[in-house]
């Protein structure tokens, strides 16, 4: 998975997505939303350039993002918002840990997301 010298450009603002912690694609991958085989085919984006997802990251190292569109947090169900905040923030923390440790790409998804993918084969919960 060699990146070209220029790196990936954000499909929204056109600037370079410099590392893992800025990558919307990798955040969604960690959350189990992006197929690993599509990682290099889908357009890259800054997390901050995707406010409908970024607004759910609650982390002191992440600048608060606000979405004012259709999916603005303020307009959504509070229980759903709480669930998304927990899920997306956990994904972001995972991304931070990986940025430091440099683990294999196959270890990227959260265990929970991995289990969910395995369970979709028909097995019940627990
Ligand atoms: Zn951008």
Helical amount: 25-40%
Number of strands: 2
**Straight-line N-to-C gap:** 35 Å
Distinct ligands: zinc ion
- The backbone outline, from C-alpha atoms, is globular
SS-derived structural category: mainly alpha
Mean pLDDT: 81
Quick summary of this structure?
This protein has helices spanning 24-30, 51-54, 78-101, 111-119, and strands at 8-9, 16-17.
Can you describe this structure?
With 126 residues, the chain is mainly α. It has one domain. It has four helices and two strands. It has helices at residues 24-30, 51-54, 78-101, 111-119; strands spanning 8-9, 16-17. It has a two-stranded antiparallel ribbon. Strand 1 and strand 2 form a beta hairpin. Helix 1 (24-30) crosses helix 3. It is globular, with a radius of gyration of 15 Å. 21% of the residues are buried. Zinc ion is lined by residues 10, 12-13, 15, 46, 49.
Key traits:
126 residues, mainly alpha, two-stranded antiparallel sheet, 35% helix, disordered C terminus, binds zinc ion
